[in-house]
Amino acid sequence: MSFCCYASEGDVADVTNEQWRRAAKQHRCCECGVKIEVGDWHQYTTMLYDRHWYDYRTCEPCADLRESLDSVTCVPYEGLADAFTDWLTHGPNTVMKVKEGSHAARLAPSYFLEEED
Prior knowledge:
Largest sheet: 3 strands, antiparallel
Strand content: 25-35%
Structural class: alpha+beta
Number of strands: 9
Distance between the termini: 38 Å
Low-confidence stretches: none
Helix content: 10-25%
Shape: globular
Number of helices: 2
Strand order of the largest sheet: 3-6-7
C-alpha cells in the first residue's frame, strides 16, 4: 500500500482503501490511460477527501512504478507522469533514459526516450 494517499498535490485523503482486484469489466488506468481488460489484475483505490469519494484504477506496471517512487516522493493519484518526469530530471541518475516502447515510455516526455537501434 502506498504511504502517501493524496487525492491531489499536497492534500491528504481522510480515508483511503487500496486493494488489488481482477477487473470484472474494462477500465482505463488513471495514470497512463491503457485499457485494463476483463480479468486483468489492477490496483483499485477509493478515497474520502473533503466529503467526496474518489476512486482510481491503476494498471499493474503503473502501480509498481508509483510504489517505487513512493520511497523517494509522495505521488498523488493521476500525478504519476509528473512525479516520474521530476524524478528523471532531478533524481540521482539524471542521465537515465527510458526505453522507447516500454510501459514507462507512456509516462516520460519524449526527450527522455532512448532511441531504438
